[in-house]
Every structure is written in structure tokens, then in C-alpha cells.
Design goal:
Bound molecules: phosphoenolpyruvate, magnesium ion
Largest sheet: 8 strands, mixed
Strand order of the largest sheet: 1-8-7-3-4-5-6-2
Radius of gyration: 26 Å
Number of strands: 17
Low-confidence stretches: none
Shape: globular
Strand content: 5-15%
Number of helices: 23
Length: about 575
């Protein structure tokens, strides 16, 4: 059994289709520059044609945003700086085309990779993908063609590039397993939107699996079983059926409300990163959007997005949600999220440094543009604006004052602004949780960001594997901070939600419900499961459970308490 990261849920059993990249060796050779330049130009044209064909085939299957990846690839093919460098190297050094391209592209790739930023590493991957294709064409090597697959398989590969993933036919590709990648890599994102089960980051998959091996892909647990025996196959067939039935059964809850057996209503809403993610939230019965992480709009761009570009993105989400609430979080950049075009001085502890609202209150020009775009969009739905990383009352008051200033300006300009706008904050810094009752006098609502709240409370970096045991959502200390936040909101008649990962963890539902949380925001595919739990428990019993949980000493005791109460 091989282990990796579950990137897109499901269980499948099928034969392995190994996607091997043809091995090519690039050697430096003395060559005739004219012939080599000709070869290089022909290879560019052939690659351009390939990418256009793949994009065409993928149109309709992938979202506009995913299709943009191919535009990024075409930009690499058409980049005059890179091809000029290759051509002058061929001319000046009289070397072969593939060698010149190799040297030039490797320089670009290592430059992007050295930037130590996930987004830039993705750009390096784009350049690698495209230049490899060009090299194959220069050398006349066949490029592997996934569209030739005509039987049910699990694709096994070192990595799947966006162009590979786009060629996958759902009818035959029952899953895929890759050696590299994480939950946010391009292939993982695409697998989720294509709903193909996937496990990524299985270090040894290419050496352990042979073409044609029988595989069980358990993308619920992130496991791959190679050549299982009959008994194991039967077990997994049952598991797969059970999972399918569970998913199908949950669909009946899609248009139902979220209400406990004794009539206490809460809202279950979705977390999104781009306007295209709204479809998943609606499909899974989300009652709104509880967190729109707007930083992706900034990260998927080569410069600061304009007011108009932002307005269009926010409007798209509000219109698609058709009157349901949409919580948009203002720019949360810094920490592990960087913008290539907005350099931040290196810091010893970036998660404790210049990020989110701290940066926005310093760079008011950037902040005001976003606020104006949001205010303009507010006319199109039920918008809630939320400020991230608020630590002090003054930060919240200053941010809100800027919003008011922009609102007044827009009204004077005769621009329509929504009447039902709420302005709230994330509670993800312990200082804000402790002082929640005072913050609630200023904010219309809270949303608890447990990903950061836990890292700051436990003093445990959320990026560090070594201290990951301290990520303990059910630790009574965390539950007490959550209780302070919810009680603080309610003391002023305000509502309190949660948009950190904890909100979607099935085990946490009972205790969060009992603590009085009003809104649970999670990834779209977790919504129906959460609703099924909420609809099967009693609020009164959960209140008693929560009262006991905050008096426990350890997370394990809380978990035992939950398991003995919720069957
Ligand atoms: C959080 O901190 O819990 C949160 C939702 O924000 P992010 O994960 O984007 O920091
Ligand atoms: Mg956070």
C-alpha cells in the first residue's frame, strides 16, 4: 500500500495506465545555425498548434479560469524574450536548437523556482511543460497522447500537467495517482472540478507500479493498493459502493434547511477561491458563501487587479448566489501568500508580520480600490464584507472608516450601493477572541478563522509538519476561545460564523452547534455531510455536551465525549 495526499474524493478499482515521459538526452553539438533556427521555429509552431488543439478539446469540460492556463502556455510559446535568447545563442555559439532551448529555459525555470512562492513555482511548471513539448518537437519524439485511452484505467504519472489533465476522458479515466503535487497544485484543483478521484504526492508510485497492474485507488484516505488479492478487492468494491450510496443519499438534503431535531436552525455555506467555485457550492446545497478568499484574484494576475476587474468578479459571485449571503474577505496577502509584483521585505516570522489588514491599512491605495469594487458590487446581492487578521479595535475602526469614506464618495458620484451591507471581521487572533464582546459593538458579525486561531494560540506554525500535532481544534483551550467569540457576538445581538477548516470537520459539528455557532463555512463537498449530522442531533443535548467539553483537559476527552453522545 502506497500513501499520498487525497486530492479529490472517491474509490476506484482499475488497471494502471502509466504515463511515462519519453526520456530525452540533450547534448551540445556544433550545428548549422540556419538549420537549427528553422527547426526551432517549426517546433514552436507545432507546439502552438498542439496547445490550441488541447484547449479546444477542453473547452466545455473546464471552467474559463482553468482554460486560461492554456493561454498562459501560449504566452510561453509566444514569448519573444525567450525565443530571441534561444536564437541568439544558436547564432553566436553555433549550437543545436534543443541545447540552446534547454539552457535558456532552465535559467527561467530556476529563476521562478527560487522565488520560494507556490504561485511562482506553478509558473515554473508552466514553462517546463511548454518547453518540454517544444524539445520533443525539435527532436521528433512522439508526445504521449492520453486521448488514446479506450478502456477504464487509473492514470499513474510523475505529475499531470494541466494539458494532460484536460485530455482525460472521464468515461475511461477512473482516477489518477501522481508522484508530486499537493492539494493546491493545478492537477489537484482540476481533478476536483472534473470529479475524478485523485491521490497526489505518492513519492514512489512510478517505481512501484507497472503499466497494467491492478490498482485500488482510495482517494478518501489517500492510499493506493497495488495488485491486491481477491479478498481486498471485494472489500474495496463494498467500500466503493457504500461511498457512492452515501454521496447519492446525501443529495436529498440539497434543498433542505439545516435544522436540528429540536428546531434550531443554522446556515451551512461554502468557502470559495474564485467565482467559478460558486457552481460547486450551489450543486452541494450551500446556503450562501461564507468565505471568498479574494487574494486568489490578486495571485492569478501579473499586476494589481483593477477596480473594474474586481467589481466584475465580486458581482459574478453575488449574481450567481441569487440573493443568498456572500461573505467576501478583503485581501489577506502576506504570510505564505505573496504577490510577485508587490515585494514585501523579508521577515523572520512572516505569519506574525506584515500581512492582511496590516498591509491594507498601510497601503491604503490598494485597499481603497478593493473597497470601491466591493461597494459597487454590493448593489447586486447580499454582500457581507469581512476584514482579516484584526487584532485591535482601532484596526477594525480604521478599516471601516475607509469603507465609509469610499461609500460616501460613490454615493456622491451617483453610483448605486447595496442597502443591506454588513461589515464584519475574522476572529483568528486570540486577542480578538478574548475581547470579542467589545469588538461586537463595532462589527456586524464575526467569522472564526480556526486555521490561524489555532496556530497563534498553540504557537505552532501551520506550515510545519514537526509541530502539526498541536493543530488541535477540539482542545478545550480552543473551544473556550470559540465560546468567548460566539458569546461576545450574541451579547450584542450579532451573528457568529466559522470559516476555518474546523467548521467542516464532522467530529466538530456537535460541539460547535452546542456552543451556539450560527454559520458553518466549508469546502463545497463537505456541505451535505455536515447538514446530515446537524439534522440528526438535538440542540439541547449539544448545549449540554459543549458545556462539558469546555471543562475538559484534553482534546481526546472532548472527542470521546462527542463519540459517546453522537452516534
Ligand atoms: C483561517 O485562518 O482559518 C482562515 C479561514 O483563513 P486562511 O486559511 O485563508 O488563513
Ligand atoms: Mg487566516
Amino acid at each position: 500500500m502506497l500513501k499520498g495526499i487525497a486530492a479529490s474524493s472517491g474509490i476506484t478499482i482499475a488497471k494502471a495506465y502509466k504515463l511515462e515521459t519519453p526520456q530525452i538526452t540533450i547534448e551540445k553539438k556544433d550545428s548549422n545555425p540556419q538549420e537549427e533556427i528553422e527547426k526551432f521555429k517549426n517546433a514552436l509552431a507545432a507546439s502552438r498548434k498542439d496547445i490550441e488543439t488541447i484547449k479546444e478539446r477542453a473547452t466545455g469540460k473546464l471552467s474559463d479560469e482553468e482554460l486560461e492556463i492554456f493561454d498562459a502556455h501560449l504566452m510561453v510559446v509566444d514569448d519573444p524574450a525567450m525565443s530571441d535568447e534561444v536564437i541568439s545563442m544558436i547564432e553566436n555559439e553555433k549550437v543545436n536548437a534543443e541545447y540552446a532551448l534547454d539552457v535558456v529555459s532552465n535559467n527561467y525555470i530556476s529563476m521562478f523556482e527560487s522565488l520560494d512562492d507556490e504561485y511562482m513555482r506553478e509558473r515554473a511548471a508552466d514553462i517546463k511543460d511548454v518547453t518540454t513539448r517544444i524539445k520533443y518537437h525539435i527532436l521528433g519524439v512522439d508526445v504521449a497522447d492520453l486521448s488514446l485511452i479506450d478502456q477504464e484505467v487509473i492514470v499513474v504519472a510523475h505529475d499531470l500537467t494541466p494539458s494532460d489533465t484536460a485530455q482525460l476522458d472521464k468515461k475511461f479515466t477512473k482516477g489518477f495517482a501522481t508522484e508530486i503535487g499537493g492539494r493546491t497544485s493545478h492537477s489537484a484543483i482540476m481533478a476536483r472540478s472534473l470529479e475524478i478521484p485523485a491521490v497526489v504526492g505518492i513519492a514512489s508510485v512510478m517505481s512501484e507500479v507497472k503499466h497494467g497492474d491492478l490498482l485500488i485507488l482510495d482517494a478518501l484516505k489517500g492510499q493506493l493498493i497495488v495488485n491486491p488479492d481477491e479478498k481486498t478487492i471485494e472489500q474495496y468494491q463494498e467500500k466503493a459502493e457504500k461511498y457512492q450510496k452515501e454521496v447519492a443519499a446525501l443529495k436529498v438534503l440539497k434543498d433542505k434547511e439545516t435544522i436540528t431535531t429540536d428546531g434550531h436552525k443554522v446556515e451551512i455555506v461554502g468557502n470559495i477561491g474564485t467565482p467559478d467555485d460558486v457552481a460547486g457550492v450551489i450543486d452541494n446545497g450551500g446556503e450562501g458563501v461564507g468565505l471568498y478568499r479574494t487574494e486568489f484574484l490578486y495571485m492569478n494576475s501579473t499586476e494589481l487587479p483593477t477596480e473594474q476587474q474586481q467589481f466584475e468578479a465580486y458581482k459574478k459571485v453575488l449574481v450567481a448566489m441569487n440573493g443568498k449571503p456572500v461573505v467576501v474577505r478583503t485581501l489577506d496577502i502576506g504570510g505564505d501568500k505573496k504577490l510577485p509584483y508587490l515585494p514585501i521585505d523579508p521577515e523572520m516570522n512572516p505569519f506574525l508580520g506584515y500581512r492582511a489588514i496590516r498591509l491594507c491599512l498601510d497601503r491604503k491605495d490598494i485597499f481603497r480600490t478593493q473597497l470601491r469594487a466591493l461597494l459597487r458590487a454590493s448593489a447586486y446581492g447580499k454582500l457581507r464584507i469581512m476584514f482579516p487578521m484584526i487584532a485591535t479595535i482601532d484596526e477594525f475602526v480604521s478599516a471601516k472608516a475607509l469603507l465609509e469614506e469610499e461609500k460616501e464618495k460613490l454615493v456622491k458620484e451617483g453610483v448605486e450601493v447595496g442597502q443591506d451591507l454588513q461589515v464584519g471581521m475574522m476572529v483568528e487572533i486570540p486577542a480578538a477572541a478574548v475581547l470579542a464582546d467589545e469588538f461586537a459593538k463595532y462589527a456586524d458579525f464575526f467569522s472564526i478563522g480556526t486555521n490561524d486561531l489555532i496556530q497563534y494560540s498553540m504557537a505552532a506554525d501551520r506550515m510545519s509538519e514537526k509541530v502539526s500535532y498541536l493543530y488541535q481544534p477540539l482542545n478545550p483551550s480552543i473551544l473556550r476561545l470559540i465560546k468567548l467569540t460566539i458569546d461576545g457576538a450574541h451579547s450584542q445581538g450579532k451573528w457568529c460564523g466559522m470559516c476555518g477548516e474546523m467548521a467542516g470537520e464532522p467530529d466538530a459539528m456537535a460541539v460547535l452547534m452546542g456552543l451556539g455557532l450560527d454559520e458553518f463555512s466549508m469546502s463545497a463537498t463537505s456541505i451535505l455531510k455536515a447538514r446530515s449530522i446537524a439534522n440528526s442531533i438535538s440542540y439541547q443535548e449539544m448545549q449540554q455536551l459543549a458545556a462539558k467539553a469546555v471543562k475538559c483537559q484534553r482534546a481526546q476527552e472532548v472527542l470521546d465525549l462527542i463519540h459517546s453522545t453522537v452516534k
